[in-house]
Specification:
- By secondary structure, the protein is of the alpha+beta class.
- The chain has a single domain, classed as 2-Layer Sandwich (Alpha-D-Glucose-1,6-Bisphosphate, Chain A, domain 4), CATH 3.30.530.20.
- 34% of the residues lie in helices and 42% in strands.
- The chain has a seven-stranded antiparallel beta sheet with strand order 1-7-6-5-4-3-2.
- The N and C termini lie far apart (37 Å).
Length: 159
């Protein structure tokens, strides 16, 4: 199953890429929401192969997630693979400079199943695909608008 969207925002590609790849910020967000996050590589700059184990509770059940950077090519490409109990996802984010101050961000997430329970979950998700796709697009748009607002308010214009 695949979800896909793209949005254009008024911020330079380098700024958008830097904000989208601020993994320390994502770790802090997950910790604030009660997750336990462990970076598996030595720390330092994030590169291809950097990975995190994340433990969290969702709908009353404890979950384990592993996220691995599979592609990181500044300022144009980012790909992350995640695995949660037989359910895999591959997220690909492409950044394209339309002008010096406008960036198009394409986001594609492909879901796959490696177990029977994951296949059953995926099948039920397919029934709600239009609703889930709407939520996905809305969430991506909110994240990108926040980046754009930060840049335009001057918090990022000097970065």
């Amino acid at each position: 199953m695949k979800f896909q969207t793209h949005h254009d925002i008024q911020a330079p590609i380098d700024y958008v890429f830097q904000r989208a790849t601020n993994f320390d910020n994502y770790e802090r967000q997950a910790l604030r929401h009660g997750a336990h996050v462990v970076r598996l590589d030595a720390g330092g700059p994030v590169t291809v192969g950097s990975a995190w184990d994340v433990a969290f509770t969702y709908r009353g059940k404890d979950r384990q997630l592993r996220a691995t950077i599979t592609e990181l090519q500044a300022p144009s490409d980012l790909a992350i693979e995640t695995v949660v109990k037989g359910l895999t996802s591959h997220a690909k984010v492409t950044f394209l400079a339309l002008s010096q101050q406008t960036t198009r961000v394409d986001v594609t997430i492909s879901l796959g199943a490696k177990s029977l329970s994951a296949r059953l979950l995926l099948q039920s998700l397919k029934l709600a695909k239009s609703t889930l796709n709407g939520r996905f697009r809305k969430r991506v748009k909110e994240q990108l608008r926040a980046i754009e607002a930060d840049y335009q308010s001057g918090r990022g214009a000097s970065s």
